[in-house]
Amino acid sequence: MPNIRRVYDLFFSTILTICKIMLALQIIITSYIVFGRYVLNNTPPWGEPAILMLMVWFSFLSSALAFKDNTHIRMSVIDLVLPHRGLKIFKRMYYLLTLAFALFMVKAGYELIQLTSNSMIPGLKISSAWLYSSVMVTGVCILVALFGKARKAV
Question: Boundaries of each Tripartite ATP-independent periplasmic transporters DctQ component domain copy (predicted)?
Fold first, then answer.
C-alpha cells in the first residue's frame, strides 16, 4: 500500500507544480501584453486568450488541490453544532455529493469536449475543446482525491 500512497502524492505534487507553472505563465504573459500595449504599441493577438486558458485550467485544478487538502471554504460551525453521530452522517452525505458532482464534471466535461471540438479559440488557433477539457480533468482529479480520502477513512 505504500506504493499507492507514493503514486497518490506524486499525482497531486505534479498537479501543484503544473498550477505553479500556469500562474507564473499568467504573470509573464500579462507583463508582456502590458509592455507590448504601452511601450511597443503592439498587442499580441494570442496573449489574452492564452491568459484566459491558463486561468481556467489553474482555477479548476487548484480547486481539486483544495478539496484534497481540505483548504477550501467550509462552514466549520456545523462540526460544533451536530452531535458525533449526526456529523458522521453529514460527512458521508458530503462525500456522496462530492462523488456525484465529480462524476457529473467528468460526464459534462466530456460532452463539452465533444460539442466544442470543431470550434477554435481566436488568437491561439487551437480547438476550444482544450479549454473545456479542464472540467473533465478536474473531475478525475477530484475522484482521485476522494479515493485517497476514502482510503484514509478505512
Answer: 27-149
